[in-house]
Amino acid sequence: MDEAYDAVQQAPTYLPRHTLMGDLLAQDGRMPEAITKYSVVAHSYSVRGEVLQATKLLRRIINISPMDLGARNRLIDQLVARGQVDDAINEYLEMAAIYYRLAELDMARKTYTNALRVVQQGNASRDWNSHILQRMADIDMQRLDWKQALRVYEQLRTLAPDDDAARKQIIELNLRMGQPDKALNELESYITHLESQNKIEPALNFLDELVREHPDQPMLKRPHAALLHRT
Fold first, then answer.
1. Which of 161, 168, 179, 216 has the most CB atoms less than 10 A away?
2. 168 membership: H or E segment, kind and range
3. Which CATH fold topology does 1-82 show?
4. With a threshold of 0.85, does the pTM exceed it?
5. How much is the average pLDDT of 192-196?
6. What does the domain layout of the chain look like in residue ranges?
7. From the CB of residue 48, how many other CB atoms can be counted at a distance below 10 Å?
8. What gap in Å lies between CA 123 and CA 71, rounded to an integer?
9. Per-residue pLDDT reduced to its tens digit, 100-140
10. What's 11's DSSP letter?
11. CA distance 129 to 70
12. Are 86 and 125 in contact (CB under 8 A)?
């Protein structure tokens, strides 16, 4: 350690030596000091425009301290700057999961919203859209925010018209919010969609399940009877 310190004093602007000192601190179990050293060096690399080196050091910090959300935020910025959008999305999801485990649902949802914005603005895989929206909807349901959950499920339905779960949630949320006409419209729209693909059996199964789970909603029996009549 003393030799590394002397080397840094001789060449204070040579960042690899500072990184080596951080490594030695980590090996010595002095994690807070190692994180501080890595953070300073990562910032210096970033200022110099050496994004790859900054990214490597930020990953070291996160490996040592996964709960360091500041480092993870800086890592996301660096990844986006390098065009590694899918990697940035993964980091957003990790951060949202941390907030979720801490029961900070508002921050978890905000993080998912930020991730979704990056997906839509960058060159990330569009498969992320449904995954992130589903996580957002889960949080809205836990917060009993039916109106917001409904909006998210409607986005999911637009992205994936064959998503049974999203369709069912839209119907059930409308029923829960006292909007039976909208629930019926959604149901009839989905059955028409399935019929257009000749998916009669899945349509009947979907209707059977809804009728069974909502015996207090006789209107749900009408599309079921109509479909049986047509087939």
1. 168
2. helix 164-176
3. 1.25.40
4. no
5. 93
6. 1-82, 160-231
7. 12
8. 23
9. 999 999 999 999 999 999 998 867 777 899 999 999 999 99
10. S
11. 25
12. yes
DSSP string, 67-132: T-HHHHHHHHHHHHHTT-HHHHHHHHHHHHHHHHHTT-HHHHHHHHHHHHHHHHHSS--THHHHHH
8 close to 21: Cβ distance less than 8 angstroms: yes
- Predicted local confidence at residue 5, as pLDDT: 45
Closest CA relative to residue 116, chosen from 106, 131, 103: 131
Only one residue has tokens 């590394």, namely 4
Quote the CA–CA distance of 74 and 200 in Å, as a whole number.
51
Q: Do 38 and 19 contact (CB within 8 A), yes or no?
A: yes
Q: Give the type of residue at 113.
A: T
| Euclidean distance between CA atoms 116 and 92, whole angstroms | 9
In the predicted structure, residue 171 carries a pLDDT above the cut 90: yes
CB 224, CB 208: distance < 8 Å? yes
Task: Evaluate whether 186 touches 174 at the Cβ level (below 8 Å).
Answer: yes
Residue with tokens 């949630």: 169
185 near 161, Cβ under 8 Å? no
pLDDT at 13: 54
Angle at 24 between CA 20 and CA 29, to 5 degrees: 145
